[in-house]
Specification:
Length: 406
Protein backbone atom coordinates (compact mmCIF):
# COMPACT_ATOMS: atom_id res chain seq x y z
CA UNK A 1 0.00 0.00 0.00
CA UNK A 2 1.43 3.35 -1.05
CA UNK A 3 1.26 5.69 1.94
CA UNK A 4 2.04 9.21 0.75
CA UNK A 5 1.98 10.51 4.34
CA UNK A 6 4.85 8.19 5.22
CA UNK A 7 6.67 9.07 2.00
CA UNK A 8 6.46 12.79 2.81
CA UNK A 9 8.20 12.20 6.13
CA UNK A 10 11.26 11.09 4.15
CA UNK A 11 11.67 14.57 2.64
CA UNK A 12 12.72 17.12 5.28
CA UNK A 13 12.14 20.18 3.08
CA UNK A 14 8.42 19.40 2.83
CA UNK A 15 7.95 20.36 6.49
CA UNK A 16 9.09 23.95 5.99
CA UNK A 17 7.06 27.05 5.28
CA UNK A 18 7.41 29.57 2.46
CA UNK A 19 5.92 33.03 2.95
CA UNK A 20 4.36 31.78 6.20
CA UNK A 21 2.53 29.05 4.32
CA UNK A 22 3.22 25.30 4.18
CA UNK A 23 5.40 24.58 1.17
CA UNK A 24 3.48 23.05 -1.75
CA UNK A 25 6.25 21.98 -4.09
CA UNK A 26 4.92 21.52 -7.62
CA UNK A 27 8.11 22.19 -9.57
CA UNK A 28 9.27 18.59 -9.81
CA UNK A 29 9.58 18.79 -13.59
CA UNK A 30 12.46 21.20 -13.10
CA UNK A 31 14.08 19.38 -10.18
CA UNK A 32 12.81 17.11 -7.43
CA UNK A 33 13.40 17.33 -3.69
CA UNK A 34 15.71 14.88 -1.93
CA UNK A 35 14.82 12.22 0.65
CA UNK A 36 16.79 12.05 3.89
CA UNK A 37 18.52 8.83 2.80
CA UNK A 38 20.09 10.68 -0.14
CA UNK A 39 21.10 13.62 2.04
CA UNK A 40 22.61 11.18 4.56
CA UNK A 41 24.52 9.32 1.86
CA UNK A 42 26.01 12.55 0.54
CA UNK A 43 26.99 13.69 4.04
CA UNK A 44 28.44 10.28 4.96
CA UNK A 45 30.46 10.08 1.74
CA UNK A 46 32.00 13.51 2.22
CA UNK A 47 32.54 13.16 5.97
CA UNK A 48 33.58 9.50 6.29
CA UNK A 49 34.17 7.79 2.94
CA UNK A 50 35.51 10.27 0.41
CA UNK A 51 38.45 9.60 -1.90
CA UNK A 52 39.06 9.60 -5.62
CA UNK A 53 37.91 6.53 -7.51
CA UNK A 54 39.79 4.11 -9.76
CA UNK A 55 43.13 5.61 -8.79
CA UNK A 56 44.23 4.28 -5.44
CA UNK A 57 44.93 1.06 -3.57
CA UNK A 58 44.20 2.48 -0.14
CA UNK A 59 41.06 1.66 1.84
CA UNK A 60 39.11 4.86 1.21
CA UNK A 61 39.78 4.81 -2.52
CA UNK A 62 38.64 1.20 -2.77
CA UNK A 63 35.52 1.97 -0.73
CA UNK A 64 34.64 5.03 -2.82
CA UNK A 65 35.24 3.06 -6.01
CA UNK A 66 33.00 0.21 -4.86
CA UNK A 67 30.22 2.60 -3.83
CA UNK A 68 30.51 4.56 -7.05
CA UNK A 69 30.69 1.59 -9.41
CA UNK A 70 27.80 -0.18 -7.67
CA UNK A 71 25.54 2.54 -9.09
CA UNK A 72 26.18 1.32 -12.62
CA UNK A 73 24.38 -1.90 -11.84
CA UNK A 74 21.57 0.01 -10.10
CA UNK A 75 20.97 2.13 -13.19
CA UNK A 76 21.09 -0.97 -15.39
CA UNK A 77 18.42 -2.63 -13.26
CA UNK A 78 16.38 0.56 -13.10
CA UNK A 79 16.26 0.71 -16.91
CA UNK A 80 16.44 -3.06 -17.43
CA UNK A 81 19.57 -2.80 -19.56
CA UNK A 82 21.13 -6.08 -20.68
CA UNK A 83 24.42 -5.22 -18.99
CA UNK A 84 25.80 -2.58 -16.65
CA UNK A 85 28.51 -2.06 -19.28
CA UNK A 86 25.82 -0.31 -21.35
CA UNK A 87 25.57 2.48 -18.73
CA UNK A 88 27.71 5.61 -19.03
CA UNK A 89 27.76 8.07 -16.13
CA UNK A 90 27.57 11.80 -16.76
CA UNK A 91 26.27 15.04 -15.25
CA UNK A 92 22.75 14.57 -16.61
CA UNK A 93 20.68 14.18 -19.75
CA UNK A 94 22.17 17.27 -21.42
CA UNK A 95 25.65 15.79 -21.29
CA UNK A 96 24.32 12.39 -22.28
CA UNK A 97 22.68 13.68 -25.46
CA UNK A 98 25.75 15.74 -26.30
CA UNK A 99 27.85 12.60 -25.90
CA UNK A 100 25.78 10.86 -28.55
CA UNK A 101 25.91 13.92 -30.81
CA UNK A 102 29.70 14.14 -30.67
CA UNK A 103 30.69 10.50 -30.24
CA UNK A 104 28.17 8.75 -32.48
CA UNK A 105 26.32 11.18 -34.75
CA UNK A 106 29.20 13.43 -35.73
CA UNK A 107 31.35 10.62 -37.20
CA UNK A 108 28.40 8.60 -38.54
CA UNK A 109 26.37 11.31 -40.31
CA UNK A 110 27.15 13.31 -43.43
CA UNK A 111 25.79 16.49 -44.99
CA UNK A 112 22.19 15.94 -46.07
CA UNK A 113 21.51 13.17 -43.56
CA UNK A 114 18.40 13.71 -41.47
CA UNK A 115 17.55 13.73 -37.78
CA UNK A 116 13.86 13.64 -36.82
CA UNK A 117 12.67 15.54 -33.74
CA UNK A 118 9.24 16.22 -32.32
CA UNK A 119 8.18 19.82 -31.81
CA UNK A 120 7.91 19.25 -28.05
CA UNK A 121 11.58 18.40 -27.45
CA UNK A 122 13.51 20.09 -24.65
CA UNK A 123 16.34 22.33 -25.81
CA UNK A 124 18.79 19.70 -24.54
CA UNK A 125 17.47 17.44 -27.31
CA UNK A 126 17.49 20.20 -29.93
CA UNK A 127 20.63 22.32 -29.58
CA UNK A 128 23.17 19.46 -30.02
CA UNK A 129 21.51 18.59 -33.33
CA UNK A 130 21.61 22.23 -34.39
CA UNK A 131 25.37 22.04 -33.81
CA UNK A 132 25.49 19.25 -36.40
CA UNK A 133 23.21 21.22 -38.72
CA UNK A 134 25.50 24.25 -38.51
CA UNK A 135 28.79 22.39 -38.69
CA UNK A 136 28.09 19.36 -40.88
CA UNK A 137 25.02 20.21 -42.91
CA UNK A 138 22.71 17.77 -41.12
CA UNK A 139 19.00 18.29 -41.84
CA UNK A 140 16.55 18.50 -38.92
CA UNK A 141 12.98 17.37 -39.64
CA UNK A 142 10.16 18.29 -37.26
CA UNK A 143 7.00 16.38 -36.39
CA UNK A 144 4.11 18.30 -34.81
CA UNK A 145 1.75 17.28 -32.02
CA UNK A 146 -2.01 17.56 -32.39
CA UNK A 147 -4.37 19.92 -30.55
CA UNK A 148 -4.41 17.66 -27.47
CA UNK A 149 -0.63 17.47 -27.33
CA UNK A 150 -0.55 13.89 -28.59
CA UNK A 151 2.25 12.73 -30.88
CA UNK A 152 1.11 10.17 -33.43
CA UNK A 153 3.91 7.60 -33.73
CA UNK A 154 2.89 7.02 -37.34
CA UNK A 155 3.59 10.67 -38.10
CA UNK A 156 7.14 10.15 -36.88
CA UNK A 157 7.47 6.94 -38.86
CA UNK A 158 6.09 8.60 -42.00
CA UNK A 159 8.79 11.28 -41.73
CA UNK A 160 11.54 8.68 -42.22
CA UNK A 161 13.29 8.78 -45.58
CA UNK A 162 16.39 7.00 -46.93
CA UNK A 163 18.37 9.98 -45.62
CA UNK A 164 17.13 9.57 -42.02
CA UNK A 165 19.81 8.34 -39.65
CA UNK A 166 18.46 9.19 -36.19
CA UNK A 167 15.19 9.85 -34.39
CA UNK A 168 15.74 11.81 -31.16
CA UNK A 169 12.51 11.85 -29.18
CA UNK A 170 11.23 12.54 -25.69
CA UNK A 171 9.53 9.76 -23.76
CA UNK A 172 7.39 12.29 -21.86
CA UNK A 173 6.97 15.98 -22.57
CA UNK A 174 8.15 18.23 -19.76
CA UNK A 175 5.43 20.75 -20.72
CA UNK A 176 2.43 18.72 -21.84
CA UNK A 177 2.96 15.51 -19.89
CA UNK A 178 2.40 13.64 -23.16
CA UNK A 179 3.70 10.08 -23.18
CA UNK A 180 5.24 9.02 -26.48
CA UNK A 181 4.98 5.49 -27.86
CA UNK A 182 8.72 5.17 -28.27
CA UNK A 183 8.53 1.39 -28.65
CA UNK A 184 6.42 1.57 -31.82
CA UNK A 185 8.66 4.31 -33.19
CA UNK A 186 11.80 2.31 -32.43
CA UNK A 187 10.53 -0.88 -34.04
CA UNK A 188 9.65 0.93 -37.26
CA UNK A 189 12.87 2.94 -37.23
CA UNK A 190 15.05 -0.12 -36.80
CA UNK A 191 13.25 -1.86 -39.65
CA UNK A 192 14.53 1.01 -41.81
CA UNK A 193 18.03 1.09 -40.31
CA UNK A 194 17.44 4.24 -38.26
CA UNK A 195 18.81 4.68 -34.73
CA UNK A 196 16.64 6.01 -31.89
CA UNK A 197 17.64 8.19 -28.95
CA UNK A 198 15.08 8.65 -26.18
CA UNK A 199 15.19 11.58 -23.78
CA UNK A 200 13.98 9.94 -20.57
CA UNK A 201 14.47 12.88 -18.21
CA UNK A 202 10.77 13.17 -17.40
CA UNK A 203 9.54 9.64 -18.05
CA UNK A 204 12.01 7.71 -15.92
CA UNK A 205 10.91 9.41 -12.71
CA UNK A 206 7.20 8.83 -13.30
CA UNK A 207 6.88 5.29 -14.65
CA UNK A 208 8.73 2.00 -15.15
CA UNK A 209 11.20 2.03 -18.05
CA UNK A 210 12.44 -1.07 -19.89
CA UNK A 211 15.00 -0.21 -22.54
CA UNK A 212 15.16 -3.79 -23.79
CA UNK A 213 11.40 -3.78 -24.37
CA UNK A 214 11.56 -0.35 -26.03
CA UNK A 215 14.53 -1.47 -28.09
CA UNK A 216 16.02 2.03 -28.35
CA UNK A 217 19.71 2.60 -28.98
CA UNK A 218 20.17 5.37 -26.42
CA UNK A 219 18.17 6.35 -23.31
CA UNK A 220 19.21 9.36 -21.21
CA UNK A 221 18.26 10.06 -17.58
CA UNK A 222 19.15 12.81 -15.13
CA UNK A 223 19.71 12.32 -11.42
CA UNK A 224 18.31 15.54 -10.00
CA UNK A 225 14.83 14.75 -11.34
CA UNK A 226 15.09 11.24 -9.84
CA UNK A 227 15.24 12.66 -6.29
CA UNK A 228 19.03 12.53 -6.46
CA UNK A 229 21.74 15.22 -6.52
CA UNK A 230 22.24 17.74 -9.28
CA UNK A 231 25.24 17.03 -11.48
CA UNK A 232 24.40 13.33 -11.73
CA UNK A 233 23.01 11.28 -14.58
CA UNK A 234 23.53 8.38 -16.93
CA UNK A 235 22.83 7.25 -20.45
CA UNK A 236 22.06 3.76 -21.65
CA UNK A 237 23.88 2.93 -24.88
CA UNK A 238 23.19 -0.36 -26.62
CA UNK A 239 26.42 -2.37 -26.87
CA UNK A 240 26.38 -2.47 -30.67
CA UNK A 241 26.12 1.31 -30.81
CA UNK A 242 28.98 1.72 -28.35
CA UNK A 243 31.23 -0.06 -30.85
CA UNK A 244 30.46 2.69 -33.39
CA UNK A 245 31.36 5.54 -31.05
CA UNK A 246 34.58 7.45 -30.60
CA UNK A 247 35.60 9.18 -27.35
CA UNK A 248 34.17 12.65 -26.79
CA UNK A 249 36.25 13.97 -23.85
CA UNK A 250 39.87 12.95 -23.35
CA UNK A 251 41.71 12.58 -20.07
CA UNK A 252 42.30 10.19 -17.23
CA UNK A 253 40.31 6.97 -16.77
CA UNK A 254 39.19 6.74 -20.40
CA UNK A 255 42.61 5.42 -21.43
CA UNK A 256 44.69 2.28 -20.85
CA UNK A 257 47.99 3.69 -22.03
CA UNK A 258 49.35 7.05 -23.15
CA UNK A 259 52.69 7.56 -24.85
CA UNK A 260 54.31 10.27 -26.90
CA UNK A 261 53.22 8.49 -30.04
CA UNK A 262 49.68 7.43 -29.26
CA UNK A 263 46.85 6.45 -26.97
CA UNK A 264 45.20 3.13 -26.19
CA UNK A 265 41.62 3.76 -25.12
CA UNK A 266 39.89 2.02 -22.26
CA UNK A 267 37.01 -0.34 -22.93
CA UNK A 268 33.43 0.99 -22.89
CA UNK A 269 31.82 2.38 -20.82
CA UNK A 270 35.00 3.80 -19.27
CA UNK A 271 36.07 5.06 -22.71
CA UNK A 272 33.38 7.73 -22.38
CA UNK A 273 34.09 8.82 -18.79
CA UNK A 274 37.15 11.06 -18.70
CA UNK A 275 38.57 12.66 -15.58
CA UNK A 276 37.49 12.63 -11.97
CA UNK A 277 33.74 12.03 -12.10
CA UNK A 278 30.92 13.32 -9.92
CA UNK A 279 31.69 10.72 -7.28
CA UNK A 280 29.39 11.89 -4.51
CA UNK A 281 26.65 12.94 -6.92
CA UNK A 282 26.62 9.53 -8.57
CA UNK A 283 26.57 7.71 -5.24
CA UNK A 284 23.65 9.91 -4.20
CA UNK A 285 21.84 9.11 -7.45
CA UNK A 286 22.25 5.43 -6.72
CA UNK A 287 20.66 5.84 -3.29
CA UNK A 288 17.80 7.80 -4.88
CA UNK A 289 17.23 5.01 -7.39
CA UNK A 290 17.22 2.48 -4.55
CA UNK A 291 14.64 4.61 -2.77
CA UNK A 292 12.37 4.77 -5.81
CA UNK A 293 12.68 1.08 -6.55
CA UNK A 294 11.91 0.22 -2.93
CA UNK A 295 8.69 2.23 -3.25
CA UNK A 296 8.06 0.49 -6.56
CA UNK A 297 7.89 2.30 -9.88
CA UNK A 298 4.45 0.87 -10.58
CA UNK A 299 3.25 2.17 -7.20
CA UNK A 300 4.69 5.60 -7.91
CA UNK A 301 3.02 5.66 -11.34
CA UNK A 302 -0.33 4.64 -9.86
CA UNK A 303 -0.11 7.35 -7.19
CA UNK A 304 0.74 10.01 -9.75
CA UNK A 305 -2.04 8.81 -12.06
CA UNK A 306 -4.47 9.43 -9.20
CA UNK A 307 -3.04 12.91 -8.73
CA UNK A 308 -3.34 13.56 -12.46
CA UNK A 309 -6.98 12.52 -12.56
CA UNK A 310 -7.78 14.64 -9.51
CA UNK A 311 -5.97 17.65 -10.99
CA UNK A 312 -7.77 17.22 -14.32
CA UNK A 313 -11.11 17.37 -12.51
CA UNK A 314 -10.18 20.33 -10.29
CA UNK A 315 -8.53 22.43 -12.99
CA UNK A 316 -11.35 21.53 -15.37
CA UNK A 317 -13.71 23.40 -13.05
CA UNK A 318 -11.81 26.64 -13.66
CA UNK A 319 -13.18 27.78 -17.01
CA UNK A 320 -10.73 30.67 -17.11
CA UNK A 321 -7.73 28.31 -17.09
CA UNK A 322 -6.47 26.79 -20.33
CA UNK A 323 -4.49 23.59 -19.78
CA UNK A 324 -2.00 22.71 -22.49
CA UNK A 325 -1.88 19.00 -23.18
CA UNK A 326 -4.99 16.94 -22.55
CA UNK A 327 -4.13 13.39 -23.55
CA UNK A 328 -5.91 11.00 -21.14
CA UNK A 329 -2.82 9.00 -20.16
CA UNK A 330 -0.49 11.98 -19.73
CA UNK A 331 1.86 12.33 -16.82
CA UNK A 332 0.97 14.51 -13.84
CA UNK A 333 2.34 17.64 -15.52
CA UNK A 334 0.04 20.62 -16.09
CA UNK A 335 1.04 23.65 -18.10
CA UNK A 336 -1.60 26.33 -18.21
CA UNK A 337 -2.43 29.91 -19.05
CA UNK A 338 -5.07 32.21 -17.56
CA UNK A 339 -7.53 34.25 -19.59
CA UNK A 340 -6.91 37.96 -19.77
CA UNK A 341 -3.60 39.80 -19.47
CA UNK A 342 -2.10 37.75 -16.66
CA UNK A 343 1.44 36.70 -17.58
CA UNK A 344 2.77 33.35 -16.41
CA UNK A 345 5.42 35.09 -14.32
CA UNK A 346 2.79 37.17 -12.52
CA UNK A 347 0.67 34.10 -11.82
CA UNK A 348 3.68 32.22 -10.48
CA UNK A 349 4.56 35.11 -8.16
CA UNK A 350 1.05 35.16 -6.68
CA UNK A 351 1.09 31.40 -6.19
CA UNK A 352 4.42 31.70 -4.43
CA UNK A 353 2.84 34.06 -1.89
CA UNK A 354 0.61 31.12 -0.96
CA UNK A 355 3.58 28.80 -0.62
CA UNK A 356 2.94 27.10 -3.97
CA UNK A 357 6.05 26.53 -6.10
CA UNK A 358 5.43 26.24 -9.84
CA UNK A 359 7.54 26.99 -12.90
CA UNK A 360 6.83 29.87 -15.31
CA UNK A 361 8.31 30.51 -18.72
CA UNK A 362 9.03 28.54 -21.87
CA UNK A 363 10.42 25.52 -20.00
CA UNK A 364 13.29 25.20 -22.51
CA UNK A 365 10.83 24.32 -25.28
CA UNK A 366 10.94 27.24 -27.71
CA UNK A 367 9.64 25.30 -30.75
CA UNK A 368 6.69 23.94 -28.76
CA UNK A 369 5.75 27.40 -27.48
CA UNK A 370 5.89 28.72 -31.03
CA UNK A 371 3.72 25.81 -32.20
CA UNK A 372 1.14 26.57 -29.50
CA UNK A 373 1.32 30.32 -30.12
CA UNK A 374 2.17 31.10 -26.51
CA UNK A 375 4.91 33.28 -25.02
CA UNK A 376 5.00 31.25 -21.78
CA UNK A 377 2.96 29.05 -19.44
CA UNK A 378 2.81 28.20 -15.78
CA UNK A 379 3.60 24.58 -15.02
CA UNK A 380 2.58 22.51 -12.01
CA UNK A 381 4.47 19.22 -12.10
CA UNK A 382 3.81 16.56 -9.49
CA UNK A 383 5.94 13.92 -7.88
CA UNK A 384 5.75 10.90 -5.63
CA UNK A 385 5.22 12.99 -2.46
CA UNK A 386 2.46 15.31 -3.66
CA UNK A 387 -1.13 15.01 -2.46
CA UNK A 388 -4.67 15.83 -3.49
CA UNK A 389 -4.78 18.38 -0.67
CA UNK A 390 -1.90 20.23 -2.31
CA UNK A 391 -3.82 20.34 -5.58
CA UNK A 392 -6.68 21.95 -3.65
CA UNK A 393 -4.28 24.61 -2.37
CA UNK A 394 -3.05 25.19 -5.93
CA UNK A 395 -6.62 25.72 -7.09
CA UNK A 396 -7.33 28.14 -4.22
CA UNK A 397 -4.21 30.12 -5.11
CA UNK A 398 -5.22 30.21 -8.77
CA UNK A 399 -8.67 31.52 -7.80
CA UNK A 400 -6.96 34.33 -5.88
CA UNK A 401 -4.80 35.13 -8.88
CA UNK A 402 -7.85 35.20 -11.12
CA UNK A 403 -9.61 37.62 -8.78
CA UNK A 404 -6.60 39.93 -8.82
CA UNK A 405 -6.42 39.96 -12.61
CA UNK A 406 -10.16 40.00 -13.31
Amino acid sequence: MYDVTEVRRDFPILSREVNNKPLVYLDNGASAQKPQVVIDAITRTYSQEYANVHRGLHYLSNLATDNYESVRGKVARFLNAASEDEIVFNSGTTEGINLIAYSWAMPMLQAGDEIILSVMEHHANIVPWHFLRERQGIVIKWVDVDSTGALDPQAVIDAITPKTKLIAITHMSNVLGTKVDVKTITQAAHAKGVAVLVDGSQAAVHMPVDVQDIGCDFYAITGHKLYGPSGSGAIYIKADRMKQMRPFIGGGDMIKEVSKDGVVYNDPPMMFEAGTPGIVQTIGMGVAIDYMMDLGMANIAAHEDRLRDYAVAKLGGLNWIQVQGTTPDKGAIFSFTMEGAAHAHDISTILDKKGVAVRAGQHCTGPLMEHMGLPATCRASMGLYNTEAEIDILVEALELAHELFA
